[in-house]
Amino acid sequence: MGRARKVIETLVAAGFNVTHSDADAVWVRDPFPLMDSLEADIVSSQGTIQPPSCHAVWGHVLCYGFIQFRSTPASLTLLREFAELAEGEGKFSDQISLNERLLSLEMEWTVKEPYGLNFREKDFFCSAEPIFGSAESEDLGRISVAILPHAQVQRLPNDVEEKTDAYVRHPLSQKNAEDIETVLRDQDCWFIERRDRPATERTSDEKLEAHPV
After folding, report:
1. Same domain, 186 and 159
2. N or C end of the chain: which has fewer CB within 10 A?
3. Range(s) of the domain holding residue 14
4. What's the DSSP call for residue 83?
């Protein structure tokens, strides 16, 4: 993730707001109006319990798989700081490094009407409203974070939230292509056919879908 992080940092420094979205974060509706309505240096989706150090203190975590860094001094400084943290400690998870850097800032969070979802026998707290956090430090000044409602960027399938509430669906899976495809198909989030199927076995619509003009 180091190269991707550097690209994000370069674009933010050039004045662009940058949205990072994992390939398996499936957009079912346009999420930009949702994000644009929030005032924050960073707008993030919600994770489950990783890293445990942050979950233990906050009861929730940021998910790096769908996140927007605004072109603000605080956002840019934070990008550079947690990049140094990841490289200096040999960590390969941007999600861990980002959350732990925010934890070190003693972020204060506002969670309205929280409800719990369970993952690996641990609860994490969600809200129907965005979760807002802020902190101040000598290096960053004031930094603000908005975490989108889990129902709107769904990470963990559950019986509490409606699928129709989602703007992005990002179901948990193992980090390999086969399992990701299986999970996305099971969650009705797979909209393309495999490209390794012989072209003679595809319909004209499938060919167009695989190689759009």
Report:
1. no
2. C
3. 2-169
4. H
pLDDT for the residue 190: 87
Residues 58 and 151 in one domain: yes
Give the distance, in angstroms, between the CA of residue 51 and the centroid of all CA atoms in the same chain. 14
Residue 114 vs residue 204, higher pLDDT: 114
Assess whether 115 and 186 both reside in one domain.
Answer: no
pLDDT tens digits, 125-155: 999 999 999 999 988 899 999 999 999 999 9
Residue indicated by tokens 């420094």: 13
Indicate if 74 and 111 belong to the same structural domain: yes
| Residue among 107, 112, 175 at smallest CA distance from 145 | 107
Cα–Cα dist 203/213, whole Å: 16
What is the number of other CB atoms lying within 10 angstroms of the CB of residue 100? 19
Quote the Cα angle for 147-1-39, to 5°: 25
Closest CA to 28 of 160, 152, 196: 152
Neighbours of 24 (CB within 10 A): 20
